[in-house]
Structures are given as structure tokens and as C-alpha cells.
Design brief:
Gyrase A, domain 2; 4-stranded mixed sheet; about 25% helix; about 30% strand; globular; alpha/beta; 9 strands
């Protein structure tokens, strides 16, 4: 599984933080990580410390916030995913199809009006 940041993906100046190049087994491991670290233990999840995720040009830290803010950065290298506990519980549901069978589909992992989307895509496309 690889993680990268793609700036300016369209004429509106929107960006994408993308998890891609993975199979069903890695999707299951990622889902379990979110469920265990964030939902159950209420801890931050720093993806640079996850051995099966390779950061290409950025890092992403997932954490629980009081409101759903989406992904933000201050330096263009380290990104933070700010969602409520309910936002992460919904993310678990969005990850489920990737855990049930191999697929080439994709899914944005939250519905927040922000300039940076969080893309989950085995083939890397959208």
C-alpha cells in the first residue's frame, strides 16, 4: 500500500491524498488499524509508522476531532485527517467493500467540503 499527495487534480485547485496499490488483505489490515487505534482506543494513527504503508511524498496522521474538517496540512508534507468518531465509523463502512473482495473500484473516505479529498483506490485511479 502506498500513500501520496497529488496537488491540483482539477481546474478548481482541489487536491488528493491517496492510498493505493493494495489488495484485499491490505485493505483488511488498514480497516482493522482504524477500528483498533482510532475507534476503540481513541488514539491518533500515524501512517508513517505502519509497516505495510509506504509514504511516497507525504505522511498522513488520522485523529479524532470535535468536528469533521477533512484533511489539512501546514507544510505540504505532513497531512492531518480531522474527523469525528462518527466520521471514522462511517469510514469503516466505506472500506468494507474492499475487504470483501478484490476490486479495481475507488472510494473517497469522507464527505467533507474541503480542498483535499482522501482517496482509497487499489489501482490508484479515480
Amino acid at each position: 500500500m502506498e500513500l501520496d499527495y497529488i496537488p491540483d487534480v482539477n481546474k478548481f485547485g482541489e487536491n488528493v491524498v491517496r492510498l493505493y496499490n493494495f489488495d484485499k488483505a491490505q485493505a483488511i489490515m488498514f480497516r482493522e488499524l482504524i477500528e483498533d487505534s482510532i475507534v476503540k482506543k481513541k488514539q491518533k494513527l500515524d501512517l508513517s509508522k505502519v509497516d505495510f504503508i509506504e509514504g511516497r511524498n507525504c505522511n498522513l496522521v488520522l485523529g479524532i476531532y470535535e468536528t469533521d474538517e477533512g484533511i489539512f496540512t501546514q507544510d505540504g508534507k505532513t497531512f492531518f485527517c480531522a474527523l469525528t468518531l462518527d466520521g471514522y465509523i462511517n469510514m469503516l463502512k466505506l472500506l468494507e467493500p474492499f475487504c470483501n473482495k478484490e476490486t479495481k473500484g475507488h472510494q473517497y473516505l469522507y464527505e467533507v467540503d474541503t480542498h483535499t479529498d482522501f482517496l482509497f483506490s487499489p489501482a490508484g485511479t479515480w
